[in-house]
Write a structure and sequence with these properties.
Keywords: Glycosyltransferase, Transferase. This is Glycosyltransferase. The protein is of the alpha/beta class and about 475 residues long. It contains 19 helices and 13 strands.
Length: about 475
Amino acid sequence: MESQTETHRKQKKWLRLLLFPLPLQGHVIPMLQLANLLYSKGFSITIIHTCFISSPKYPSKNPHFTFHSIPNGLSKSECSNADNLVSFISLLNANCAEPFRDCLVKLLSDVSDEPVAGLISDSTWKFTDSIAKSLQLPRFVLRTTNISSFLALAALPLLQEKGYLPKQESQEEKPVIELPPLKVKDIPVFKTQDQEGLHQTIAALVEQTKSCTGVIWNSFEELEHGSLTDFRYNFRVPIFPIGPLHKYFPVPSTSLLSQDQSAISWLNKQAPKSVIYVSFGSVASIEKSEFVEIAWGLANSEQPFLWVVRPGSVIGSEWLEPLPKGFMEEIKERGHVVKWAPQQEVLAHTAVGGFWTHSGWNSTLESFCEGVPMICHPCFGDQRVNARYVSDVWRIGVHLENKVDRFEIAKVVRKLLVEAEGHEIRDRILQFKKMADQSTQQQGSSYRSLESLVSQILSSQSQGKL
């Protein structure tokens, strides 16, 4: 009997999918992982991207994809201000709508011998909803956060009505009854002068979720069963939790930043499970005072550490200028500092015993999948929700909740790496690693969801011909 996959391959001959990632590392990586996954299922892939991420390495590392660049209309200074997320995304949405529509119209008219089966857009592109509808093109949405944090975002109008927002410092430890296990301080917030405008934009994006052809999640059923149940009840739209996306098969590096391989050479000299790996992602920035506390906290822990300090991530500094005098001499060979590291390779290394993370969803999933317990230090948005789930629900990490302090840092690092509580956390996360491994294997929950996604794409494309 012919398998479902083989039937799909025959049906999908010469079918093309258009993918449109947001030009930030945490969004580009899962979109390209999804592209490779759908290519393996028989679809042709076209990536529409803004000039912000134009790079020769994308076509060279992905020769099986077609790439189309559109202008973003941003000045050099506006591009360099990508760490102001709300402003940056707002500008992109204002500037890219018309170029995107022009590109889409051209692609739809140019591929009569290779029909377009649908569009997969990053959920943050607000204008793709109306453009896809006007062109009668099925539109799927890739959400690069998890389901739990999306439900928190969707609840912002209710939380405002209930008086949780705007946040008050005296209420930060108060539980959010409507969203257990969150506390008030965990409610997703973003830095902007126009909070009301931001909430309106988020509400519009949430509403658009209800009208798309389907929502693709980089998560899996066993991890977020409760949140998925809530989503299915409140949003009557097909959903496809097919993560962890990076677990299906190795794909070429999609990092927008140059990776320092000396991180691996240094790890090769360290004892098993002895190193704390520290990285706060590709966007977050910290104050100089925090940077100094982190430095001395790592030194005082007396544990080996691999520390990623992204150039420009310390406010007002180029790179390591704020390091305390004599710091490098103090740590000697016990610490290694790089500008960027090959994170998946680092987390898979036998020397790594813990991950001090900003709790971005990609990083959290990667830590899950390698069985590496976490120290959570969220900065903004969905990271706060992720950190609460890691520490209080899944209990596979420690939440660094108070003001950054060198003595607290040293204490938490030792707890995770050498104390009994850290060993208990490591045992628990190994169970989650097993669940993640099984989910993407044949007949696993994510594998089955992927098959359902393929069927939905084919069904939507067929209906579009009617």
